[in-house]
Amino acid sequence: MLFKTVAAITLSLTALVSSQVSTVEFAPFSQYKDLAKFPKLSANERSSLLTQVNKLLTVYVNRESKIDNYGYDVLKSLEEINAKAANSTEKELFTSLANAINGNRDGHTALVLPAPHSCFAKIFPLTWSLIETDDPKNPIAVVKDFTSFPEVKKVAGPALDRVKPGHVLVSINGLTINQLYEKYSATTRGANYFGGVRSILSGTFGIRGGRLYPVQFSDNERTDVTYVLKERPDSKNTYEITVPTVGRKNNACLATAPVSNIANNEKPTFPKYPIMKAADPEFYLDTYGGTSELPLTSVEGTGGILLYGKYKYLGTNLGVLRLTQFSPVTTGSTLRPETVVKAIRDVLVNQFKDTDALVLDLRSNPGGWVYLADAIPQFFKPDYTPATARFLMAPLNDKIPGAGIEGADAFNAYSSTPAGQKYSNHYRMTSPSAANFYGQAYLKPVAVFNDGNCYSACDLLSAGLQDHQAIKKMYGADLNTGAGGASVVGINNFFKLASPSDFPGLPKGMDFSIGYRQLVRNGVNDGKLIEDLGISVDKFIRPTLSDMFNVNNRSSIFDTIAHELRAIGQADGINAEPQVETSLAFGEKISFKTTSGYITKLELTLNDKVVDSKDFVLRKTTQDSTLEAVASENGLFHYQILGYTNDKRVLKTSRYVKTTPNVNNYLKLQAGTPVAWDFKHAGWTGAYDTLTTTAKWNLLNGKFVVGDGLNYPDDVDTSVSFFLNAQGKVKVQLNLESESEQDYDFVTLTYTPAGGAPKTLFKVSGSQKFDKEFVFDSTANGELNLKFTSDGGVSAPGGVKVNAISFSL
């Protein structure tokens, strides 16, 4: 069972608008102020809320970091709230709880407030960009645009007509940016100065959603806002406007607000992959958007995550790979992170093969899948080793990772921790084999460009690339990233299942999440934390005012990055661009056609043995060659191509080849002549095992079993295929025994006719023992596939065994 994930998915503002356009109303916030109330709690509900919040904070892994960096202990703040709770009004209770938790300055630790309060938001009409300055801690903010909600400008009134993009912010309500930070830094959930400033501009005085923040910080907080601005940075003349703050009311939210004592009574389900939640799951706003400085192309099928383009100006040719976030921007998506990883590789190999250099643009990326962040470095650095994570040693954790609920790796790390140690031994959420599935895909100079809104999994990727020296330079629109150094889990999507006796669920549809697994860096920054510190940049660079207006698609930022990286590439002599195309057939040679430059030797290996090699004379022009291997049997095989320049290895990339039988070798079924498989890999069968698994179908004591037939590990994906030639009704007799984790691990039998869609004959989970016949129609050739899969998490003490299988017409 996948207890090591969370279900929170970050939505972009555009996705939120499109899904709620017919149910949302806007008006001056003063009209909604008294409607944004908190529901009344019974004495039992108050007790349950406080008990679960306090208990969850006993496994909050970043508590020590907050005490060390800010002198703030969230549990001590909770003690004061607990003492006053019995005599507090609902408004006092919820507001004090939210402020105490938000004051922790951790975007992963969040209390989701109840309706009707959570159905409202306070919106300020202007959005901001930070432009170039000599002093990163004396920021210059200029108007980027009006908020994405067109209704907001209408409600705010004609005073906004004087404001134009590029006008410079002097103050908001009489306070400069740094004065705003001093006053509101403890309310933003931003971990450091840069994340705090950007959160103030986009959240506190941008869109303040009632799910995570009190929409009114105090009863006497203004319901209007006064801006002082000037038209140019060098202007001495200012102007002042005062406009109402705008309220947003979500009628759909109000209509579905839960009223039961305990919300979300349906059984929670778990997604497949660990997610590091973004700082604000309701009102994340991509302040870059991928279009303001360079037109980018969105890669189809990546859920809005991946965009790319080329910056060409004055002879430069810079590939720009934009990652908006690490999980889908739309709800209900079935997108898998492996799909995005493959798409990134395809862009690197096919779209960027003629570029001089590459920059990963991670600005305003709020995070998402851990696996995606761990899988990207392999394209630029061979044998990448993902960062590790650790738990806080605590009685509650003794019942979760200490009881195996987080999976074998987490259990082994936690259970082997010496007594008295504050944190558990480390483990990896992504295995090195999974993180290096493809290998290198781009050898020219690579850089990262991020900012203080780069958070969580975005921090993790930035750290991984820097720690393993996979990039030439880290550019930043701030001096540090946002510093979200933990993965996140909540009560509703994790703890209600992991420890239901401790967490029956919060009342009134609420939820509470914490930073649960603390990330620890490795490589050249071994042992350092990400939380509160973020990732330090090598070069501070912000856009100029003229960049905002995108004249001739020119960008001072991309100018700088393109010229610096090209100079690095020329100095290092890095100009190799290997490509590999594959053509193959069973019983013939598998040909890997390559095009490369600056390579003096290429080797093709299978199972770490060299099966072919080619030598070249060093030259700048590209050279074509072919590496070959013989397909001796059916299956999935892992080939590696190694490239050397004067005995120095500069390339290590993987290719996976699935070999299938020639149609002449298919098993030809004839009426009245059943064929029983003897569990040997005949010419008409093949084993296709995911190469990262530690268990697969094996022949053992005359049976076909997964692993040793008694236990199986996490993340198994193994199958055996039978290639059949038959016309008519095919009968498959299968004798199967299976003890797997119910609803999470499955045995599946499918049939795929040549050129057709697969048909599932059965899919079972849990305890199964049967000898059954399955029948399907076949008109010619097809593939019958028997697969077993297990998810990450609890490894059920059981096995999967095929005692017999036969085929007949």
- Computed structural class: alpha+beta
**Count of individual beta strands:** 41
- CATH topology label of the domain at 13-255: Pdz3 Domain
Measured by DSSP, the beta-strand proportion falls in 25-35%
Spatial gap, N to C terminus: 39 Å
- Net shape: globular
Give the neighbour order of strands across the main sheet: 12-13-14-15-18-19-22
| Level-1 CATH class name of the domain at 13-255 | Mainly Beta
Tally of individual helices: 18
The CATH superfamily of the domain at 13-255 bears the name PDZ domain
Largest sheet: 7 strands, mixed
- Give the CATH architecture of the domain at 13-255: Roll
Low-confidence stretches: 1-21, 259-291, 576-586
Give the mean pLDDT.
Answer: 87
As a percent range, the share of helical residues equals 10-25%
Radius of gyration using CA atoms only: 29 Å
Signal peptide: 1-19
Protein name: Tail specific protease domain-containing protein
InterPro entries: ClpP/crotonase-like_dom_sf, Tail-specific_protease
GO molecular function, one term: serine-type peptidase activity
Give a structural overview.
It holds the Pfam family Peptidase_S41. Residues 1-19 form the signal peptide. This protein is of the alpha+beta class. Among the domains are: 13-255, Pdz3 Domain (Roll); 579-659, Sandwich (Immunoglobulin-like), CATH 2.60.40.10; 663-808, Galactose-binding domain-like (Jelly Rolls, Sandwich), CATH 2.60.120.260. It is 20% helix and 30% strand. The chain is built from 18 helices and 41 strands. A 7-stranded mixed β-sheet has the order 12-13-14-15-18-19-22. Strands 30, 32, 35, 37, 38 and 40 form a 6-stranded mixed β-sheet that branches. Strands 31, 33, 34, 36, 39 and 41 form a 6-stranded antiparallel β-sheet that branches. β8 and β9 (239-244) form a beta hairpin. α5 packs antiparallel against α6 (90-102) and α8 packs across α9 (193-204). The longest helix has 17 residues, at 556-572. The radius of gyration is 29 Å and the shape is globular. The model is unreliable at 1-21, 259-291 and 576-586 (pLDDT under 50).
